[in-house]
Specification:
Blueprint lengths: L4 E3 L4 E2 L8 E7 L4 E6 L4 E5 L5 E5 L4 E7 L4 E5 L2 E5 L6 E5 L8 E8 L5 E7 L8 E6 L5 E8 L2 E6 L5 E6 L4 E6 L11 E5 L7 E6 L5 E5 L4 E5 L5 E6 L5 E7 L5 E6 L13 E5 L9 E2 L6
Parallel strand pairs: 1-22, 7-26
Antiparallel strand pairs: 2-25, 3-4, 4-5, 5-6, 7-8, 8-9, 9-10, 11-12, 12-13, 13-14, 15-16, 16-17, 17-18, 19-20, 20-21, 21-22, 23-24, 24-25
Length: 296
């Protein structure tokens, strides 16, 4: 096994306002804007190409977002999945896949190739327990539970051909992959690609590039791991933030990585969450949009 290449990228900060738990960056290639969330604020944030920041306060903790075909934003809140209209400020309830019976909230989510919102939950029990799950949510509110026995569902991303879905559990520290039907959203059996140590970085949010590599935020290690389809770490990006939470590709050529982070004192001093960016020798893929697939 070849040792991974260590890279210290030329990082720039893209916001000045501190975040509590920055997460779920999504690049809108149609408008050249970056969306992300501050989970506990709670807020949905839009960063325009001019540097202007628009902040939309949410009525409950927000875990993730996705772009919609009609320019609304699908959001995973503590109270369920909603559609949010940035122009009017209106919310439309879609569904609550978690329910109120267990101590979980919605966490990492992403729109898949099938046009559905794939979103997982996170155990808020103390200590956390394996009662979280992964859900597939349609624009009509129909919901399918696709994985159970999780603690912190995370790391959703798809291969460039849409035929493999990646998924991680940040607390159980594993990365798995499923065969995926982009027409129906059907999953094959999951198979573990690798487990992680704390020093390698607990696998948080993720994205994939056009060459099929998986980029995982190592939230416990201040780094970003670029992982081959076989599960081997091939590159390690050492970051100036101690707790990166999720990367996404953006910029006009989809060759800029934006990475969110959370507030932490892990290094012995408090550092607020933020969003950083750096250019890479890899190209990302534009995001899928909620409701844009007629099948499934």
């Amino acid at each position: 096994m070849t040792a991974p290449r260590i890279i210290r990228p030329d990082v720039r900060s893209v916001i000045e306002q501190p975040l509590t738990v920055g997460e779920s960056p999504v690049w809108d290639e149609e408008t050249g804007t970056l969306w992300f969330v501050d989970i506990l604020a709670p807020a949905l944030v839009r960063l325009s190409h001019s540097g202007k920041i628009d902040r939309f306060d949410m009525p409950a903790a927000i875990g993730a977002l996705g772009l919609c075909r009609d320019h609304r934003i699908v959001v995973g809140l503590q109270t369920g999945v909603h559609l949010f209209d940035p122009l009017s400020g209106d919310f439309e309830f879609v569904c609550d896949p978690v329910g109120r019976d267990i101590n979980c909230r919605l966490n990492d989510g992403k729109v898949g190739p099938d046009g559905h919102f794939w979103i997982g939950s996170f155990s808020e029990a103390k200590p956390p327990v394996n009662e979280a799950a992964l859900y597939r949510v349609g624009a009509d509110g129909r919901t399918r539970t696709v994985a159970t026995g999780l603690t912190s569902s995370n790391g959703l991303a798809w291969s460039p051909d849409g035929r493999r879905m990646y998924h991680s559990d940040s607390r159980q520290c594993f990365l798995q992959a499923f065969d995926f039907d982009p027409d129906t959203g059907d999953l094959g059996d999951g198979r573990r690609l690798r487990s992680f140590t704390e020093d390698e970085g607990r696998p948080d949010g993720a994205t994939t590039d056009r060459d099929g590599f998986y980029w995982s935020a190592g939230v416990s290690a201040g780094r970003l791991n670029r992982i081959s389809p076989e599960g081997e770490i091939v590159e390690i990006y050492i970051l100036p933030v101690p707790a990166p939470t999720m990367p996404c590709f953006g910029g006009p050529d989809l060759r800029t990585l934006f990475v969110t982070s959370l507030s932490t004192d892990r290094t012995g001093r408090f550092e607020a969450g933020t969003v950083i960016a750096f250019d890479v020798d890899a190209e990302g893929l534009p995001p899928f949009r909620f409701g844009n697939h007629p099948v499934g």
